[in-house]
Amino acid sequence: LKSEVTSREIVQNITSVPFASPDVEWTNKTAIFSQAVGQLQDVLKVEGNYFTMGFLLLMVMLVRMVKATDVHPRTGLLTGTIAHGLGDLYHFAILFLLVFLLNSLVAHWAFGGTFKEFKDVRTAMKNQLQILLGNLPADFDQHFLMIVYVTSTAILMFFLMLNFLLAIVVEAYTKVRQDIESIEVENEIVTDISLTFKHRFQRTWYRWTSTQQMLSVLQRNVATRSVNAEHLRLSGISVPEARQFLNVYGSLQCLGSKESKDVYERAIEKYKAKTPPTQDVVQDIQS
Questions:
Q1: What does the pLDDT look like over 120-169, one tens digit per residue?
Q2: Given phi > 0 = left and psi -120 to 50 = alpha, else beta, which region is 17?
Q3: Mean pLDDT throughout 23-47?
Q4: Which residues contact 114 (CB under 8 A, 6 or more apart)?
Q5: How many CB atoms lie within 10 A of CB 4?
Q6: Alpha carbon of 7 to those of 18, 42, 43, 47, 51: distances in Å?
Q7: Which of 192, 178, 173 shows the shortest CA–CA distance to 80?
Q8: 24 near 18, Cβ under 8 Å?
Q9: What is the pTM of this model?
Q10: How far apart are CA 234 and CA 195, in angstroms?
């Protein structure tokens, strides 16, 4: 934008107006000055437009950054809470705005001629917001009706409305927490990120097949609730590669079946009791 050059040029045009020169007519002086001021106003308008555009872009980036936090269940608490409580928040906003506007109209009608804080509806809404933040009007305790108004506003808008909002947020947050607890494959974010990089390294080291092909294999066997080396071999994946794949992901506790966990727990209990495991336990472990 060459703002330094433009600013220097505008200042020079304004300061170079020959006001003290008797050879230049007054109309020419004012025309030169008006032209310089007009140029300054144009530059300020452009700068204001760029500032507004930059502010909007930063706000969009902020929203996108917050939205990106839902990539993981535990960092997506904020977006998940908003999503779960969006319907209730929408209706709460309608109710709050309606009560807030009507209360401002009452304040303007009753106290507009007595208190300057309520001289018009816009000023009444502004000062009513200040009341919600704890800033009371000056000398409000000298007027009985003003005391009634401030007290009713505090009870209705602060204690009731604010607690309604908190109840909506807490309920939505509780639902999000319940959803997170029901996810069996979720770890804390540092562990999941490390496992992602670990997977990339192992895929290169063991020369696993492409993710798309492996995903298609898993999707074809989703009805069986489990995948073994034979399923992977029949899909064109080599046996060593299939075994490495199952060994890596089978070590994750979240991917183990409940039946296999019960079998291992029973075997451990037998071992601790120094009692040989029964034949059915041995068969379950071998299978």
A1: 889 889 888 888 887 877 777 778 888 888 888 888 888 888 899 999 99
A2: beta
A3: 82
A4: 143
A5: 8
A6: 20, 12, 9, 12, 17
A7: 173
A8: yes
A9: 0.61
A10: 27
